[in-house]
Amino acid sequence: MKTVLILCAFCLVGITGVAGVELTGKVTTVIDGNTIEILASDNESYKIMLFGIDCPELGQDFGEKAKLFLQKIILDKTVNIKIQGKDRWGNRLGVVLIEGETDPRFKLLEAGLAWTSERDPIDELESVKEKAREKGKGLWKEQDPTPPWIYRRQQTLLVPKSS
Length: 163
Hints:
The protein has 163 residues and is an alpha+beta fold. The protein has one domain: CATH 2.40.50.90. The protein contains five helices and seven strands. It has helices spanning 2-16, 63-74, 104-110, 123-135, 148-158, and strands at residues 22-32, 35-40, 45-50, 53-54, 78-86, 92-98, 115-116. Strands 1-2-3-6-5 form a five-stranded mixed beta barrel. It has a two-stranded antiparallel ribbon with strand order 4-7. It is globular, with a radius of gyration of 17 Å. The N and C termini lie far apart (36 Å).
């Protein structure tokens, strides 16, 4: 029983211990509209998802546009990242500042290329998204765009179940 408690304590430290970590590095890859890979000053490579937003998936309308938009503003730039934690799949979530100043989340939302998080959206980001929606920018030109979390669920349902 004591061993189980110690293991649980280590698991909790591992999960929560990542929040608050700060990284600096150069963006080497833009994976999609809200995911980048950096080579950090410790010479390690890190995959980071932008905290608080969700862009269309690459198979969705505006998915490729979101990726190219992010690529244009962030690729090969130095970034400072404050890790906010991990998602349920273990991906690092971070607030990214390009060259210490520009937050790409706001740029993506302003261009109408992202939603705010499905759960507990950040008020400041939500207001930027709503302005883009009111102006009919980007994906908000469509009458009823499908949020990426719905799209991902739909894609999961299409995968044949193994017996």
